[in-house]
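ok so I'm stuck.
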Amino acid sequence: MKKLLCVAALLATACASSQDDNDVPSLVPPAPMAMPSASAPAASDSEVSELRTQLTELLERIDVLNQRIAHLEEGAPDVGRASARPAAPEERRAEARPTSAPAPQQPQQPQRALIGAQLAEEYRQAIILFGRGRHAEARRAFEAVYESDNSGDLADNALFWIGETYFAAKDYNNAVRYYMRVVNDYPSQNKAPDALFKTAMVQTRTGDLALARRTLQQVIDRYPYSSSASSAKAELERIKF
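replied:
not stuck anymore, here's the structure
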């Protein structure tokens, strides 16, 4: 009996499969969506170098802008408070009297501003050269920036980056020489904490850990609110023993 039932089932299946394909709904699942390959091509060396250059340039611009804001906050008059003060009676009477024709304005002297803009562009180009690994060219460009205005806002930055070109070349003696020029000649400028911290990094590289620890502590003591102080604390923990 079981054999007869199996034969009947097979015959029913064969008859069903002989029907027209258009009358049978398709049971084939849709093709899966193409997924992105897990092994996507990595960025090329040139792209990484360009991104590093752009990041360095942005950080440098932030340093310069922060320094300019600090100078403005220290020396700018309180314009809002002065304008809010009511005029005294004598001042009102003086305003009511007719005044003589204003003196002709002296022509503005844009030369200094132009020099500043050119210097900033030279500095930016030097940063780009450094980011691309062209350290010797970058060093000459930073030296030109420093020599153009060794008392300006970019002087300490230029000296610091000259030191960085030597650090990249593993010429640690010259690197420290320029870092310490920043620390000694421009102790209140924005690159002084970075220069002192990089001095400690050179001392670490050359194996003088005791001196490096003292220098890192100086970074923390002199510039407690700088980002270099935070880096110095982390580095002290790393070379604690």
